[in-house]
């Protein structure tokens, strides 16, 4: 799938009435067809922590004043956006759907009249939130025109047509919306986090549970499943929270299966742990508790983060420690003999992939073999199921996977067709693949899902679509995952490498620049990110956006999956 195709798809599914003065190209996965989606969860109750005052239209308001007042009033969802609906004609007030999604913008918003009964509002859109609560970034610097139409109602103008969904500036969005991980079950029953955005309000627990009941979003529907049987619903349409205890009472078919009950409880414990004021959860079926006592909410365990930095320094390969290079038993001697220029080491430290002039080698307990001899090989990866992943930049749609048992096959990645791919990475946990793409002076990161066999975790395919999850200025240099939800990319600006942290459904965060940067290591958290320069200096974060040199004479740093 070419990037142009991705752009067409991204625009086709929008509910916002965008006028094509732009080449907005943020998201690849907004469907251009398919079933009607239910829209964002009903937010009539509007018990959000931060409330905005809303005012109706003033007498004699011009069309421009109506549009600006309407957008401001839509910051308050009280009583089903009743104040915002005052700006609409009676007929359109019943049709306007504020729950379709959110358009997030920054900067100014000029308005121009388009005849007597229409007007255009121009916005610098930075992101969209789709009906499932998934945030999709848009490319910086591009603008969007929204069309509004007006009709006289008595002596006053009113809006007779407006974009579906609400329009929020970035500051307001950050104040009243928050991101949470809704966890589903992937291959081997590993948890797969699906980042969603919800209004920050008292009904947050109910909305997260409803998201679990609805199942994985489009990206993960082929990758993960929910432990909640299809058709399961809340008995009272709400999750009650009292003294830190969230009581989730459900009804439906197939709920007495002990395995399903364990899975449902695990999803609840890990998905509700980010809700302020919730520290325990109780699962009930038709009013009867599943467990003898409530269970504590908890982050995903084991935490699927990256591992310690490994690499080659002064000809020796191993894990970097305070006292020097710690060899990896059964791996280090072979890696050193191969003398490759790109290395990946599994988090278990039992399998490595090494790129040499002969191709990509797999290394395991003293054994080695060439598994991919294609030219223009990108830096390889090793996932948590100990499969090596290798890709040729000249044929980026064909990923080759192999393991130390001799099994190997190709996986087609259709959304990389025709793209200048500079780096690929498999997320910890093995449910997502990311690719850093160069686009002539700017770069972006595409993220798709990975399908695996339930037993053994063999990768079998990737999702047919991917989303652009990061835009960055400058030539693409390198990319790595930090944990299951975040990645870091480095792009060239002048002679320095700009470091940007992002993630699926997350706003990017620039982390400063490192002179002559060449490679980057994710490391599991921001403090463990490392940048390798062309002359072998290793840099670590210092303060908010600074970098300090922590090592020299480093030849290669290894990706750790």
| Structural class by sheet pairing and helices | mainly beta
Strand content: 35-45%
| Structure summary, number of beta strands | 41
Radius of gyration, Cα only, in angstroms? 25 Å
By DSSP (H or I, 4+ residues per run), the number of helices equals: 8
Unreliable spans: 1-46
N→C terminal distance: 26 Å
Give a description of the structure:
The protein is mainly beta. It is built from 8 helices and 41 strands. The strands form 9 sheets. Strands 1, 2, 3, 4, 5, 6, 7 and 8 form an 8-stranded mixed beta sheet that branches. α2 (63-73) packs antiparallel against α3 (78-85). The longest helix is centred in the middle third of the chain and has 14 residues, at 258-271. It is globular, with a radius of gyration of 25 Å. It starts with a helix and ends with a strand. The model is unreliable at 1-46 (pLDDT under 50).
Quick summary:
The chain is mostly beta strands.
What layout of secondary structure does this protein have?
Elements: H1 3-12, E1 18-19, H2 63-73, H3 78-85, H4 90-95, E2 102-106, E3 111-113, E4 118-129, E5 135-137, E6 144-153, E7 156-161, E8 166-169, H5 170-176, E9 177-185, E10 191-199, H6 204-214, E11 233-234, E12 240-242, E13 245-251, H7 258-271, E14 280-285, E15 288-289, E16 295-296, E17 310-313, E18 316-321, E19 324-326, H8 332-338, E20 342-345, E21 352-356, E22 359-364, E23 367-372, E24 381-382, E25 388-392, E26 395-402, E27 408-412, E28 420-426, E29 432-438, E30 442-452, E31 459-462, E32 467-473, E33 475-481, E34 487-493, E35 496-502, E36 509-515, E37 517-521, E38 530-533, E39 538-542, E40 546-551, E41 554-558
Parallel strand pairs: 2-8, 13-14
Antiparallel strand pairs: 1-6, 2-4, 3-4, 4-5, 4-6, 6-7, 9-10, 11-13, 12-13, 14-15, 14-16, 17-18, 17-41, 18-19, 20-21, 21-22, 22-23, 24-25, 25-26, 26-27, 28-29, 29-30, 30-31, 30-32, 33-34, 34-35, 35-36, 37-38, 38-39, 39-40
């Amino acid at each position: 799938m070419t990037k142009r195709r991705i752009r067409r798809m991204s625009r086709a599914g929008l509910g916002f009435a965008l006028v094509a003065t732009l080449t907005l190209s943020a998201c690849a996965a907004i469907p251009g067809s398919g079933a009607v989606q239910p829209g964002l969860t009903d937010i009539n109750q509007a018990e959000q922590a931060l409330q905005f005052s809303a005012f109706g239209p003033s007498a004699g308001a011009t069309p421009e004043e109506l549009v600006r007042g309407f957008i401001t009033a839509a910051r308050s969802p009280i009583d089903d956006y009743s104040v915002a609906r005052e700006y609409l004609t009676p007929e359109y007030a019943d049709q306007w759907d504020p729950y379709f999604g959110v358009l997030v913008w920054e900067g100014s918003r000029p308005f121009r009249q388009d005849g007597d009964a229409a007007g255009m509002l121009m916005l610098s859109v930075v992101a969209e939130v789709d009906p499932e609560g998934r945030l999709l970034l848009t490319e910086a610097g591009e603008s969007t025109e929204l069309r509004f139409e007006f009709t006289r109602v008595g002596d006053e103008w009113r809006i007779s047509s407006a974009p579906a969904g609400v329009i929020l500036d970035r500051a307001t969005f950050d104040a009243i919306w928050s991101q949470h991980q809704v966890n589903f079950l992937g291959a081997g029953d590993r948890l797969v986090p699906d980042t969603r955005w919800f209004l920050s309000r008292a009904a947050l627990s109910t909305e997260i549970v409803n998201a679990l009941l609805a199942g994985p979003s489009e990206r993960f529907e082929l990758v993960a499943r929910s432990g909640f049987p299809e058709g399961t619903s809340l008995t009272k349409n709400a999750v009650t929270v009292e003294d830190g205890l969230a009581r989730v009472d459900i009804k439906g078919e197939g709920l007495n299966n002990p395995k399903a009950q364990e899975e449902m409880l695990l999803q609840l414990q890990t998905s509700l742990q980010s809700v302020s004021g919730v520290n325990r959860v109780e699962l009930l079926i038709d009013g009867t508790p599943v467990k003898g006592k409530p269970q504590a909410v908890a982050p995903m365990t084991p935490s699927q983060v990256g591992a310690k930095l490994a690499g080659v320094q002064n000809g020796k390969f191993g894990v970097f420690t305070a006292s020097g290079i710690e060899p990896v038993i059964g791996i280090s001697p072979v890696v050193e003999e191969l003398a490759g220029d790109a290395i990946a080491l599994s988090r278990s430290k039992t399998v490595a992939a090494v790129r040499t002039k002969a191709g990509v080698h797999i290394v395991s307990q003293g054994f080695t073999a060439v598994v991919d001899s294609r030219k223009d090989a990108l830096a390889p990866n090793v996932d948590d199921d100990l499969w090596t992943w290798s890709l040729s930049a000249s044929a980026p749609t064909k990923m080759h996977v192999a393991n130390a048992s001799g099994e190997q096959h190709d996986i087609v990645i259709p959304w990389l067709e025709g793209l200048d791919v500079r780096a690929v990475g498999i997320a910890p946990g093995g449910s997502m693949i990311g690719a850093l793409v160069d686009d002539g002076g700017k770069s972006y990161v595409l993220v798709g899902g990975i399908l695996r066999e339930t037993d053994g975790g063999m990768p079998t395919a990737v999702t047919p679509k991917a989303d652009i999850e990061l835009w960055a200025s400058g030539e693409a240099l390198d990319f790595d995952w930090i944990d299951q939800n975040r990645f870091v990319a480095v792009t060239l600006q002048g002679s320095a490498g700009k470091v940007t942290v992002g993630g699926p459904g997350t706003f990017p965060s620039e982390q400063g620049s490192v002179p002559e940067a060449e490679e980057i290591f994710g490391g599991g958290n921001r403090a463990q990110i490392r940048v390798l320069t062309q002359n072998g200096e290793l840099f670590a974060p210092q303060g908010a956006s600074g970098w300090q040199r922590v090592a020299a004479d480093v030849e290669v740093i290894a990706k750790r999956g």
